[in-house]
Each structure stands twice: as structure tokens, then as C-alpha cells.
């Protein structure tokens, strides 16, 4: 079931002009598709290997990415055919599309994500980040037998992986794909950074060939262009003159003017291009900093710092990137949290008891946010990378950039879907309503990570899909839990392991109302750990008493 995808081509313009023009022996067509330079079928006719086209059975294929080309244009675009991801036979799908090593990108303005099926959530991911998403409605309520959704993508893409989230008991076929906007249901437009070439005024032809732009003979094309005067054509334009002035004199003046205009024009063009590059790069950097500032809670921090404090409390200070760079050793990678700061503590092995304590402390922190804070707070991005551990594996819950405080008389916040793929609540995908039970679902995924040692998303497609949550639920239902447990976890007490596994199942329930609250989760995890902790305290107490009595006797 192929769909059309638009590829937006970006190639270095100056490098193209430095190439020799293709010879007349180059094949110009493959089937009904015209192959213009810089593309070519013969080795010597393409600019380089990325633009090499293989013509198989009158169908052109771009060699480097092995996709069928439907149309090529010298305005920097081409249309290709690409497979659709479907849930019926995932082994027949192309799992990912990767253009990272090529000069091509998927167009932001000419493509959309399309999802087909009843009550599913379709998305495109890139490096475990959601880049485009849409959800379909449940069929049958209004007599519908098919539902679809479409959505724009956030930026030009170098690669993507399609995925569909459905109910585990759903037996229908569902489809997801990146498609050309003309094959979707409505048109849309947006700006996109592209590089395009045009012939200068007075010239026409293919601007991507050496000497591809040829002079237009305006005098021959339009015989009345000079009226009653004589018309003289020159490279790049034409001149109207009377018989009183000699043709040679007019030609010399025009050549001088043309030379000066060309020289200054080229100079200003180069200066303008360099200036535009610097401006765009600087704006992107500024925009990136602003987005990171907002996403990581900068506006909330700024508001708190500007709030008046009592005279006995020092006002906080916000540092800029230059000041932080000095203290962070110019942002040395060895100082990044989560990248090397935690190697393994040989004096404190990562045992089942440590696993259990981590699960308890995470649950306690989230329970405090939901139930004990002055206003309930939903974290909205619970995942393992936001759980920081010190050298004794003590827990700190981090990254409150997407957190929301909720009035006590509210049960949810309505917002566009945000979060990390693999941890997000399926109900949140369908309703755009984030509840306290959505944090409970994310905690359930983290708990499954602690039990299995697996990542939330598998790199390859399994029978249960790519989701660790679905894989865990199926294993529990088939009584195969111990086959997927981490080696250290298997050394723990069976009763404790089963209690934590059953708790994870309840947290991952597809119906939010049937999940426990974080307060109930924290109490249950504490109950599993309490007997062991109390026994350790009793041992320590007896040991201290023994030492004290020994001193007393001495």
C-alpha cells in the first residue's frame, strides 16, 4: 500500500557550478520520468553518488536511499514512493527512514502524518522523541466504519520511525505514514529553509548546469520592443538606439555598464548571502535557547525571582550562559548529569533491595506532589532519565519543565499531548486530558524498567510491538514474568517481586479510573519494603546495645 512522500533536496549550489556539464551521451529519461542534472543515470552524468539514479524496468530508483523516484524537479524537490506502516503485517514494513548521511530531507511544508483506523494513536518518532502525532476517533458511535486523522510535522526531517498505539485486544488493521499533502484531505502551507537557484534577468535555462543559463535575444523575441528605434541585443539584455549614435559606441557603453553591474551585483550577493547565513544561524540559536528556557521552567523561575521577598531573605539570582560557562568548564561533557557522573559503585552493588528502595522513594516523591503540596502538581514527564541517583542510589525527581499545578477542585488539565514516547498514558493520547492517573501510568513504566532492566521502547519490532509496557503485560498474562526479569531482581524474594509486578500491572491499566492513586502506590510499595527495613533497624539496635553493655561491664 504505497503512499507518496515529498523529499526536499538541499545541495551545495557553488559545488554544483564547479562541476562540468554532463555530456550529450547522458540518458535524460527513465520511463516517463525526466532525469535532469545534477541527477544522472550514468556514473559520469551525476554530480556525485547521492544523485546517482538506477533505472530498473523503466522505473528510476535513487541509489543511496533505494526509493522509487516518481518525479524530479530542478526547483529542489522530488517525489518518491514509500511504504505504509501497518499493524496487520509489521514484518513487511520499512521500520525507519534515514537520510542523515545524505543531502536530502523530508519536506516540512509538503508532507503530513496520516493515521487510518478506529481509535488509534499514530505518531512519527526520531531518537525516541515524538515529532508528529494524531489520534483517530472510535468508530461505531455515529455509524462510521472508518476513521482517519492528519497533522503537520514540526520541522524538516532527516529521518523518522512510524508507530501506532492501539488497545492490546484490538484486532483491526491500522495504518500510519508520512504522505504528500495532495494525498491528504486539506492543503496547508508554512515557511521552510530551502536553497533554490534561478537564472538572472535576461537569461533562461537550467541554473544548476555550467553555462546552463543562456542569453535571451529580446530583439528577436519581440520586434517592437524598441518602437521606432533600433534594437541591439547584448549578453544579459538589450539596447535601444537611434541612428545618430553608432551601434559600436552603444555596445561599448552597455558592456561597461553590464560589467560594473555584474561585479557589484556578485559582490553584494556574496555579502548578502553571508550576512543572511549569520542572521539565520543566530536566530536559530536564540530560538533554541528561548525554547529550552521555557521548557525547563525558566519563566516560572523568573517569576519567582521577581516576586518581593521579606527583607531577611536574600533575593535569588539568574545566571546567563556566559557566567554558567565559566563555572561549568565551558560546558564540559564530563559534567553533564546522567552522562558519566553515575559509572558503577563497587562498594554498593545494585541489588534487589536497592531496586525496591528506588521504587519506594520515587513513589513517595510523586505522592507528595499529588497529595501533600499546597496545590496538587502533575509532573507530566516521569521517565527514568528524570530520576537522578547519587553515589548511594538515593533518588531525586528532576525536570519540572512540563509540570502543572492544579486547583484542588479540578481533576485534570486539558493540553496538547506532550511527554516522552513509551511513558505517556494512552488515555491522554485520546482525550488530551492529563490527570493524576497519567503520572501513575508513567510510574508503572519506570517500575517495569526496574524489574526487567529493559528500555521503554525496543529498537526492533516484537510480536507485542515496540512498547515495553505491552511486552510486560503480555508476559504477566502468559505467566512468563521470570523469563523477562533482570538478573539482580531474580535474586530477591519471590513474594516481594510478585507484589511489585502486580502493582505495575495495576498502574499500567488502560482505564485510568481503575489505576491506584500515587498515595496508594506509595503506601503499597512502603508496605512491601517495611518488614525488611524494620528487621534491619532491629539488628542495628541490638548491635549498639551489645557494645554499650560491653563497655559498661569493662
From TrEMBL:
Keyword Transcription: no
Compartments reported by the entry: Membrane
Annotated Protein kinase domain residues: 253-528
Topological type in the membrane: Single-pass type I membrane protein
Reaction equations catalysed: L-seryl-[protein] + ATP = O-phospho-L-seryl-[protein] + ADP + H(+); L-threonyl-[protein] + ATP = O-phospho-L-threonyl-[protein] + ADP + H(+)
InterPro entries listed in its UniProt record: EGF_Ca-bd_CS, Kinase-like_dom_sf, Prot_kinase_dom, Ser/Thr_kinase_AS, WAK-like, WAK_GUB
Keywords assigned: ATP-binding, Disulfide bond, Glycoprotein, Kinase, Membrane, Nucleotide-binding, Phosphoprotein, Serine/threonine-protein kinase, Signal, Transferase, Transmembrane, Transmembrane helix
Signal peptide range in chain numbering: 1-18
Highest taxon, organism lineage: Eukaryota
Transmembrane intervals: 255-280
Protein name per UniProt: Protein kinase domain-containing protein
